[in-house]
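Researcher: Please translate sequence to structure tokens.
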Amino acid sequence: MSKTLQLTAADFDPLGPQTRWLRRSLFFIYTALLIYGLFRPAGPSALHLFITSDKVMHFLGFAGLAFCTRLAFTHASAWKIWSLIILCAPLSEGLQHQVESSRQFSWLDICANLAGVAAGALCWWITTRLYHHYKTRQPL
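Model: Translation complete:
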């Protein structure tokens, strides 16, 4: 079995338990900002730089959410964390129109949300690989 597959959540806590409150505070602030952005009456007009800029914002928002969530809850079950994030991606788009009637439901937004979750998971995987490499001084 490879060393990477043996890495557990308990092994990855580079900032230590003394910064857990900081990581969780970052998570709650980020989540509050994402919720505000998703459920506000209309997307910010300054960010309409191009036609699909809304999709880019959905992608970046959920990529950051996925990474921040995993960073804040490193010792939680990975299956539970990723399942909740994947569930939130389409659910947030469905709720968007229910909460704010001026917002439109879009399948492309759901795709952008899920792609963002995948990108956040990839960033998390790269981070754990780099940390493991740094900790053990073994080749990537």
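Researcher: Any highlights?
Model: Helices lie at 20-39, 53-72, 78-99, 107-136.
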